[in-house]
Amino acid sequence: MIKVIIERRIMPGLEDEYELAAREAMRISLGIRGFIGGETLVRLGHTDRRLMITKWRDLRAWKEWHASEARASAMQRILPLLTEDETIQIYEAGY
């Protein structure tokens, strides 16, 4: 299993619109093969900062989702709401 950490910074005043778009993206990912689950965190004192932690069966499942038309479509609603490119980091269990 891997965890994918996505950090996003939202344009001030667009947090509610972002939440709707992000929920839709999460709803779509629920049906994707290899998706295990995820959560979204809001940084204390910074309502424009989001951290998404998603769990995937393996790197292949994540790469398929990342390159999919479904994700590209969901991101068309999210990207215009961000002040900068999202950052994505991938982690696996330590040994």
TrEMBL record:
Residues 2-90 form the ABM domain. Gene3D superfamilies: 3.30.70.100. GO terms for molecular function: monooxygenase activity. PROSITE patterns: ABM. The keyword Ubl conjugation does not apply. Keywords: Monooxygenase, Oxidoreductase. SUPFAM superfamilies: Dimeric alpha+beta barrel. This is Antibiotic biosynthesis monooxygenase.
